[in-house]
Write a structure and sequence with these properties.
Layout (H helix, E strand, L loop, with lengths): L1 H12 L19 H17 L2 H12 L4 H16 L8 H12 L3 H28 L21 H8 L2 H4 L3 E4 L6 E5 L5 E6 L3 E6 L4 E7 L6 E4 L5 E5 L4 E5 L4 E5 L5 E7 L4 E6 L3 E6 L5 E6 L5 E6 L6 E5 L3 E5 L8 E4 L6 E6 L5 E6 L3 E6 L4 E7 L5 E6 L5 E5 L2 E5 L13 E4 L8 E4 L5 E6 L2 E6 L21 H13 L22 H27 L13 H9 L5 H27 L15
Antiparallel strand pairs: 1-28, 2-3, 3-4, 4-5, 6-7, 7-8, 8-9, 10-11, 11-12, 12-13, 14-15, 15-16, 16-17, 18-19, 19-20, 20-21, 22-23, 23-24, 24-25, 26-27, 27-28
Helix pairs in contact: 2-6, 3-6
Length: 611
């Protein structure tokens, strides 16, 4: 029996390997390389058969961002570096090994890259399907039934009494505060809490779910600006001379002595940075997790009170009194971009949409201009009535809100891309202007307005994002104290470095160009192409056919006269001297006539010019 057992065990040990095991040099797990290529080909075929909107959503998950053109450009630059590699610093043996390696591709690396690309494409398609299932809610804008109806005619009273449910209609209210105004308003990231502050020292926090006053205190001096920090339990208040940090109960926690006479503040949640600027024109970044001053930059453009952050790349946009907008990051001592938005008029307000592609600016010339931040060019503009636009904001769905005078005007999301003829909705606050602040509440179709007599809350259908991302830090309005503590720890662990803030956030984590010489040559070629294009445009402008003028002004003599008008020669100088001499003689004769008039003349002063 023992021998039989031994024989049976020996027989079982010599069994053939399982069929999924491959020979040496092949893939030992999963599918083979040929099967992966077939699967990738079928996935790409399915991707191209999808509608354009679904295909763009899948490609967004595949590339990790909607700006796939930037990654393609970097990949093209790397390929150019490989083709024009600089081997002057290498030995002959190293050059020979490099050419040998380039001639014989690494098949194992290719198989690994094909496997990863196939897996990424499959995961992107699954993520797009899951997003379609989970994001079942869509933002609902008001649509008229026929051409005779207009959404601009819809008032808040009719919405509250006829169209809205009770739990939504309760968001339409007016809070009369006449003693410490004018008031401004801000929401936290979840939209649960609203921070209201009056310019005469009144600060309070209101729970938007219960409409109960959670915190209220008086600072006994003027308040310039205020904002929440990482969540609703901490806030920064800019008072008369310094910036103070308060907790949710109104207790003073810290005083920032270096921030003097601050007029505008923004908090960067992914970097835990508090950015301030005011009358001194100095932009300062304060790390609220460590308390250190990260950087400070002198803008050299005077006082500034219009400040907004770009949600796409965390770059700060500053609006100045000379009509320019500058873009700043903590790692650069100079502005990244400078744009002349309103010539001869100060910038009164700013707003950037959620995707970071469009910027709206309000100026003292009573205009709201829309700029495309991908090209830094103006798209179109809108005129305001009743005064200059004092406050702007863009909702999560792209609705543009403008506060001008005692009026508020709201435009559809399409108004950022193309110029529309009439607004989406409007609301008037008679006797309460000028409006101080206008903010959309996150994840709700609510807009808060701060004015001279308190606060007003109105409902703008379709302005809030209907799908809540619970994985995002501090966006859950129903989190308890334990969840808030865990979110704080995770947010601190995932805090980004200030050096990562730039115009192109997708460049972080990418591959830097290996050859500095090739990079400089590429930049030089781009500059030469831009100069050539500019010179060609100037040449085309010179060769442009001259406009035909009427009433004989197109004659040769008139054209030559206009050309000779700006030429300064010897005859022109003599003519100018003769004119100056005649002018001096006329003034001398006028002075002699005035001297002959008697000072003791009894005629009235009003009649002396007749004698």
């Amino acid at each position: 029996m023992a021998k039989d057992k031994h024989q049976s065990s020996t027989t079982t040990s010599k069994k053939a390997p399982p069929p999924h095991k491959k020979q040496a040099g092949g893939i030992t797990r999963g599918k083979s390389h040929a099967q992966l290529l077939v699967q990738r080909k079928s996935l790409k075929k399915d991707l191209h058969s999808l509608p354009s909107d679904e295909r763009s959503r899948v490609l967004t998950h595949f590339h990790g961002s909607e700006r796939s053109d930037l990654s393609k450009q970097r990949l093209k630059n790397l390929k150019d570096d490989d083709r024009h590699r600089n081997t002057t610093h290498l030995s002959d043996y190293q050059v020979k090994s490099l050419n040998k390696r380039r001639a014989k591709p690494n098949m194992a690396l290719q198989r690994q890259m094909h496997r990863r690309e196939t897996k990424r494409l499959q995961n992107a398609m699954e993520a797009a399907d899951a997003e379609e299932i989970l994001h079942a809610h869509t933002a609902g804008l008001v649509e008229p039934d026929n051409d005779m109806e207009k959404t601009i005619q819809l008032t808040q009273r009719s919405l509250k009494n006829e169209h809205l449910e009770e739990n939504v209609a309760r968001n339409i209210y007016d809070l009369e505060l006449n003693d410490y105004g004018p008031y401004k308003l801000r929401y936290d990231r979840s939209g649960r809490l609203a921070l209201l502050y009056g310019s005469r020292g009144h600060v309070g926090i209101i729970d938007q779910h219960t409409l109960a006053l959670q915190t209220e205190f008086f600072v006994q001096e003027s308040v310039r600006d205020a904002c929440f920090l990482h969540n609703g339990s901490m806030m920064a208040v800019s008072q008369e001379n310094n910036v103070f940090i308060y907790d949710g109960d109104g207790t003073e926690v810290h005083r920032l002595d270096g921030h003097r006479r601050v007029g505008g503040m923004e908090f960067l949640p992914y970097h835990w940075l508090l950015a301030t600027i005011g009358n001194t024109g100095v932009l300062q970044y304060q790390d609220t997790s460590t308390g250190n001053l990260v950087s400070q930059h002198r803008t050299k453009l005077g006082p500034c009170h219009a400040i907004r952050q770009n949600p796409f790349n965390s770059v700060l946009h500053l609006g100045h009194t000379n009509g320019t907008v500058t873009l700043w990051s903590p790692s650069s001592s100079e502005y990244l971009v400078k744009m002349l938005c309103h010539k001869g008029s100060p910038i009164t307000s700013l707003a950037i949409d959620r995707s970071g592609r469009y910027m709206a600016t309000g100026g003292g010339d009573s205009k709201v201009k829309i700029f495309d931040l991908r090209m830094f060019k103006e798209v179109h503009s809108y005129n305001t009535y009743g005064g200059a636009p004092t406050c702007l904001d863009i909702s999560q769905t792209g609705i543009l809100g403008i506060g001008h005078g005692c009026h508020t005007t709201f435009w559809r999301p399409e108004a950022l891309k193309v110029k529309m003829k009439e607004p989406y909705m409007k609301h008037q606050l008679s006797g309460k202007g000028p409006l101080e602040s206008l903010r959309f509440r996150p994840f709700e179709d609510v807009c808060g307005i701060g004015h001279a007599r308190g606060l007003s809350s109105i409902v703008i259908p379709g302005s809030g994002e209907p799908n809540l991302d619970s994985m995002e830090h501090f966006t859950n309005p129903y989190m308890d104290s334990k969840q808030r503590r865990e979110a704080e720890v995770r947010s601190l662990l995932e805090k980004l470095s200030p050096d990562m803030i730039g115009l192109d956030p997708d460049s972080v984590g990418g591959i830097e160009e290996s050859n500095l010489i090739q990079k400089q040559q590429r930049l030089r070629h781009l500059a030469e192409e831009a100069d050539a294009k500019k010179s060609a445009d100037n040449e085309a402008a010179k060769n442009k056919k001259e406009k035909k003028r009427m009433r004989g002004r197109s004659k040769i003599a008139k054209k030559l006269g206009r050309k000779q008008k700006n030429i300064v020669d010897e005859n022109m100088l003599k003519l100018k001297e003769l004119r100056d001499k005649e002018k001096a003689e006329r003034e001398e004769r006028r002075r002699e006539l005035n001297d002959h008039i008697s000072e003791d003349d009894e005629a009235p002063a009003a009649l002396k010019r007749f004698f």
